Here is the input.
Amino acid sequence: MHQDHPILGNGRLGSFPRVSVKYYIIVPIFLLVGICNYFVTIILIDYSEESQTSAFIQRNTTNIRALAPTLAFSVWEFNQDRALSTIAGLDDGKSFRSASVLTDGLVFASNGRPELEAGAVVDIINATGQPIFDGAYAIQDGALFVRYPIWLEDKDRQVATVVAEFGMDALAAQNAQVASRIQSIAALGSFAVLVGIIVFAWLSNRLLGRVAVSITSVAEGELDTHINLRSAISELQDIETALQQLRRDAQQLIELKSQSRAAEQIQHMALHDALTGLGNRRYLDDFKRHLDERPLDAWLEILHIDLDGFKEVNDRAGHEAGDKLLQTTSDRLKAMVRTDDWVFRIGGDEFVVIRDRGSHQGSELAPSELASAIVSRLSQPCTIEDQTHSVGASVGVVTVPLQNLDFDKALGDADIAMYAAKAAGKRGFVHFTPYLREATQERQRLSASLEQAIGDLELQPYYQPKVDAENFALSGAEALVRWHHPEKGILGPASFLDLAKERGFLVEIDKLLFQRVCNDITIWREAGLVVPKISVNLSGPRLSDPALISDLKSANISPGSLSFELLETVYLDDVSEDVLHRLDEIRDLGVSIELDDFGSGHASMVSLLQIAPDHLKIDKRFVQDLAPDSQSARLVSQIVEIGKSLGIAATAEGVETLEQAQLLYELGCTTLQGYHFGKPCPAQEFCKEYLERDQNHAFAPLDADRSIDLGRRRSG
Here is the structure.
């Protein structure tokens, strides 16, 4: 016996309610919804897996990054136990497999049971790695490999590298679970759509209209609209549930896309300078992978640019003006290069321009022309908030073939050439040559030796006598630093003081020299010798050293037996209250003040009045060409008169002849110093040659005629 179907009735079309043509137009729309639901499911699964994987990578890399400072000090202190206990913090009991700390390619510490050797991990990342933060990662054979550099922040150097391996089995299982849930939801949605097709015939025009309106609202992105078909039919309620789920799926898809865009934005921020929008140092370090797309016969031009005088503008006008100046510099550089060139900001006021030579043959500037144009353009004044500022630029240029290119070495060569441009007077450019690298390496070796020399007490005071200009009797001495280099012999200050200033060693050198001078004075006085006033050079950093006054007090030097010589570059026009207070504290301890190399730089009458020194030391360049009625003689006379008007005595240095000594006395100098009276010599020799002699004996030989003639002029 034939029974009616519970939904289709007796199976005859006549059993269906009459449906207008409009319903047959809506039915394909629901079929289209089912198809869309299928593709949405695929997209959701892909985005879910991508999001989970990205979160997995971010989490493990962040954990390594958090441990980097501790690992840096462990490597620096060669503490393997602490390094092992630190990397043990990566073990989450789920995905962690192994971690190793590499120094110079060798394993410093290793944890876990690595399936791959640390070197193999590095090779995998080098071959297929993607950048993240300061490091890189790669995924292979169901495992995540991470490489992260370890920097010692206070030393500003990389001391090691962490390579770690994490299993992705748990992540894969989690992704499969999420995919299963999404597929279940999609199956429910598809089933609801199919049911909707069957029950459409049972719906009225009004009910189908509400369905159409609901679908349209979702399709048009009105995801905040609540869907309610207001029907008691279970099939339609299923459709309503499916539409609600579809709305939620669409919202989740939008959220996933938003997260993806946020991740892309984070990656962009990590690789670009926030102030100028240019690529940053990390982007430059990652730039090598772009070179693989270039033909091997191509050449690369690298220009390393450093602004001259930017710090002065930044200090004088403030950081806001400095930032706008950097933005202006960025805009000028971008306007000068081609669209397919690269411009990076890699430091405070340092920029790098890279271009592929030959991609625009016939229309491009030669490297020298581009460097010259950059120097000229960046040296043009810039107006910021109604104030005009001017800086210069020093540019290092290197041109290298892409074949067998060592990119890091090329960047270093451009940096070397840039510093050579600065050393040559700034506001210019220098092409790299192998000689520059040799000179830089020699400077680096000298720098390392200097740091060791300070600890090994290789720096010693050499004493040069000062004499009374009237009778040439010993009146004092200047302690000058000399370096007893184990290989190069005795080096004068010109060989290493600029390097010491660059490395921040001036305070240590001044302190060491002061201690040795105090020891020498003590030894001489204990031997019963009369010790004249000894002058010691005082650098700007040492003058600002909080320990200076306490060192003076603990030295137990008799008042009047010591003086400090300040370089003229220390006392600029704007002498701070702190400097003046420090000088007053020095005077209160019985130490006099002398201004060295007066007339060579920035000194003014204002600073002279503020500091009120006891002596002015006339720069030796005025003495070298000294002759009666010469320009040098007139300048010396004017300096002496300025000093007399302020109650300041004048000392002339660089005296090499008897004629210079006589003329300087006639011009009013009270103290003389130079090779004519004695070269700088060690403490023992100075004691023997000068202190153990009759202190009142004029040791510079005088012929009888000159002595008589000189005496007549003085008596007259």
